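Hi R.,

Here's the input for the iron/sulfur cluster complex you asked about:
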Amino acid sequence: MAEILAEERPVVPVPLDHRNEFELLAATILSAQCTDKMVNTVTPALFARYPTPADLAAAGITDVEEIIRPTGFFHSKAKSLIGMATAIEERFGGEMPTTMDDLVTLPGVGRKTASVLLGHWFDEPAIAVDTHVLRLARRLGLTDSDDPVRVEADLKEVWPRDMWADTGLRLIMHGREVCPARRPRCDGCALWNACVSRGAF
Ligand code: SF4
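And here is the predicted structure with iron/sulfur cluster in place:
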């Protein structure tokens, strides 16, 4: 299945604009409950004003809120962004942590967000399980769980380790474009032959 997805979508650039690991982490925090397109409209101003963790750690929360307001939930996201940057400064000497155990100690960073950074910046084997991956993994019969940690473990059993990160991202794109929650487009779906839910909608 990982191979079919790779044939369908050989190149999968991360849809969140970023130039370094700090920007990718901040953009991923902002992407909660928000489209990537909208995140990409606010991050140029955010990163121009606060280009480093030290800059963001020293930011005023209302200034950050004003910039990120269009992404929604801007009070909590601003708090997470400043908290994340402060933690990087105070606990990691200004350097982005590089392990799951350390990343999930940063405010606003859960396992999914940490996996985006590990898989798509640090080239570590990781799968970011978002709502699309959860839905698709069940539809495809790759898991019987709704628990993201269990689903991640089940996917790691069946996908080649060196394809974990990109396959996860391909599944997200497939979920968005071909197999949304409502009205999946089974006709013409590249995964038809591999899918236990084909034609069931
Ligand atoms: S065959 Fe249908 S249900 Fe299965 S992945 Fe494709 S669109 Fe989704």
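One thing worth noting: The chain has eleven helices and no strands.

Cheers,
M.
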